[in-house]
Amino acid sequence: MTDSGPTLGSLTDSYVAAIQHDLASLPPASTLVGVVRRPTGWFHGAVDENVPQLAPPAELLEETKRAETDLKRRGICDEEAHNAAWDQVDFESRYEAHLDGSADAQAAIDAIVDRLCHGESITLVCFENTAKKRCHRTTLREHIAARLERTA
Q1: CA torsion sign, 146 to 56 to 93 to 99?
Q2: At a CB cut-off of 8 Å and minimum separation 6, what does 5 contact?
Q3: Rounded to whole angstroms, how far apart are CA atoms 32 and 14?
Q4: pLDDT in tens, 105-142
Q5: CA distance 13 to 34
Q6: What is the pLDDT of residue 1?
Q7: Tens digit of pLDDT for each residue in 74-114?
């Protein structure tokens, strides 16, 4: 009989309002890890910890918000404006470049991968409801999952 090593923890993502209102289906004993740049006090109260190094860079967030505001002024609804702004500023690839190019982001990803490899279940948390809007935490989850596959 061989030892297959520790059980890998699960990696999921959710948004804070779903957690606060018991709408999220989370793995048992999952650590809630916020991934926002400027968390509010009530956000801190809803998560176990926050890792701002995994949030998108402030300038990318600001550029996306400006594009979204401009699209809304043209009469595009909130969700469509948000998603169109993502495409307009090439949010996803720029965020992934940040994750790959920032030493702080890499260190934070390394720490999460290590925790997952030691069996901890982690849920990445931010503000966006991804039922209608695209969100960096989904990109981050996929990025970490790909990294975890390369590590395993």
Answers
A1: negative
A2: none
A3: 9
A4: 999 999 999 999 999 999 999 998 877 889 999 999 99
A5: 10
A6: 41
A7: 999 999 999 999 999 999 999 999 999 999 999 999 999 99
Question: How far is C-alpha 81 from the chain's CA centre?
Answer: 20
d(CA 79, CA 83): 6
Closest to 151 measured CA to CA, from 107, 106, 110 = 110
Q: What DSSP state is assigned to residue 13?
A: E
Distances in Å between the Cα of 112 and the Cα atoms of 29, 95, 145 are 16, 18, 10
CA distance 72 to 33: 31
d(CA 10, CA 27): 7
Q: Can you tell me the mean pLDDT for 35-60?
A: 94
Do the Cβ atoms of 82 and 129 come closer than 8 Å? no
> Phi and psi at residue 64, in whole multiples of 5°?
-65, -45
Catalogue the E-assigned strands of the chain: 11-15, 31-34, 49-50, 122-126
Determine contact, residues 30/12, Cβ cutoff 8 Å: yes
Closest CA to 125 of 38, 12, 41: 12
